[in-house]
Amino acid sequence: xxxxxxxxxxxxxxxxxxxxxxxxxxxxxxxxxxxxxxxDVTFDLNGNGxxxxxxxxxxxxxxxxxxxxxxxxxxVPEKKMNIHLKYTLICLPFTLVLLLHMLHDRIGWHWLMNxxxxxxxxxxxxxxxxxxxxxxxxxxxxxxxPNMNVLIALGATAAFVYSLTGTLLNxxxxxxxxxxxxxxxxxxxxxxxxxxxxxxxxxxxxKGLSGSQKxxxxxxxFDEHHQEVIMPVxxxxxxxxxxxxxxxGELVPADCKILWGDASVxxxxxxxxxxxxxxHAKDMxxxxxxxxxxxxxxxxxxxxxxxxxANIANLVKQAQGEKPPVxxxxxxxxxxxxxxxxxxALLTFIINYVVLQNFTDSLxxxxxxxxxxxxxxxxxxxxxxxxxxxxxAARNGVLFRNAGSLELFKDIRQVVFDKTGTxxxxxxxxxxxxxxxxxxxxxxxxxxxxxxxxxxxxPIAKSITKTWKTRLPGTPAKTEIRWAKIEExxxxxxxxxxxxxxxxxxxxxxxxxxxTTNNAHNVYILKNNKLIGWIDVKDDIRPEAKKVVNYLRxxxxxxxxxxxxxxxxSERLAAELGIDKVVAxxxxxxxxxxxxxxxxxxxxxxxxxxxxxxxxxxxxTIGISLxxxxxxxxxxxxVVLMNHGLKNLPLSxxxxxxxxxxxKQNLFWAFCYNIVAIPVAALGFLNPMFGALAMGLSDVVLxxxxxxxxxxxxx
Length: 715
What we know:
By secondary structure, the protein is an alpha+beta fold. Helices cover 49% and strands 20% of the residues. It has 25 helices and 26 strands. Strands 14-26-25-24-15-22-23 form a seven-stranded mixed β-sheet, with helices on both faces. A hairpin with a 3-residue loop joins strand 17 (483-489) and strand 18. The protein is elongated and about 120 Å long. The chain starts with a strand and ends in an 8-residue tail after the last helix.
């Protein structure tokens, strides 16, 4: 399947997004995401249609495909004036002069009372309004999904036609409402501009991420004499394997690996951590991070479009386009909102005319109903809050894969932690060791162990080899044993035969069970079936682990430790951290079953990092992975903590909960506004001009309320 990612202009509300979605569904494409907040439209072509044909179809709906998301991200677009602001400025002078006729007695401009002059002033505004609202209204009606522009076009047209009739039939000034038609159009344009500005402000966190992807890189090339040449290139032109030079104060142009040099790196753009990290040869650098101090030469490991930062930005954009369950009811109401308002406006006119016996007042009240109604508020309630919540999360090192996870966090009552690599650092170090055979020195034990363990991929073996293979300056070099035969015996350890015929083992207690009753050590070393020494390793607890567990318990959340490690070690760690319950010595299959059982009891979040955690993460209500976890765990998780630790777990829980609270507040406002505003307009307490202004400002309220999430305390 071909992945299509477009930027589409002209989407003003959820009904617009719904129109495009329904069209794409008819075209039988897959994985449709339409986000009217930023105009992103993505879907998968299944081979039955062409992208060009679908683009023409979207254009025919009244929207415009302006380019691909990749192009928009690669190039800084030319700054254009907001179309709503442009139309506001065109219409405003005519409208202001029209409104002055109400003050003609004070200013002496009696010529403004001439109906033909009022018509001449109103016509330009009406033409501009209908070229935008009218065209959009007709296309939406033709496609069976009327949008809010139908209401605006109907209200303005009713006032204009009524006034035009009064002018042509010379019925007098009581029939002139040109200023009403012009004011409705101008104020709605202005309201749309304010809405657009407030919605775009909710995208600023994501724009910060996207902006950090664009930089100039110092690419290292070689001339014909094999001398280094530094070439400035756009980072989007870098490819995996390219060499780059990065100096103090420069942005890292792409994900890369340090070959030479040391540096302090500010990774706040990804992790939210403002303290620079020390980086050395073989360490990884994240594209978009800042080299605070130092100079390094590095090799690009991923092109800019495939970098960690680019993937985060794309995932956040996708999540913004998704709808959590709380929005589904609002969408259903929004879909029938416009026809319902038209029916209410017609009913308002009939009832008022019967009661008042006044055509003009009845018409003005029905027009007020049309222009004060705001289906946009219902559609904007969720996307605005989601945009802010996901954006703030991304800037603080929390990546939500889907918008639904934000809502699910409000119900989490249990959090389950894996042990190694999650509550602990996963970086094993030698805690203690002992030689048990007097004929063997400590140096010999280290040499034997390194000679054996370097052939194992087990984490314990790697940690021992890493520590003991390093020779201190001034000490003699250790001579390794050359083996005639060596093999790794699954479940036991490493077995080797030296060229002299001696048999050596390095492994678990199973290999030493007949030689000692002490099973508390991690590694046992045997020579010719005799125990010559043992080694213990330790895994340091993450410094933030206890604080995170205490925070969860303070919120009434039950904490679990779920581990494949021994019960004794798991219980000891749980006691040290204050974890409520322990389930130890579990296989990956058993872990998955435990999580499934817990999730049936209460909404459960699982935090893990290894391949063996992936099935359990998938079974949890919300799966949470660390950024230094295995790729399988990251791909399975709903949430990824990008700060190489648990530090931002409370933030992710708090943001999820408060984003949902903001969504509920927005929906409450949207429903209450329409429930109150429509009857007020129908009863004649609000004229159409103020109604148009109130409609525009109603969306701004949602934008401001959603924007509070940027600074709101969520923990």
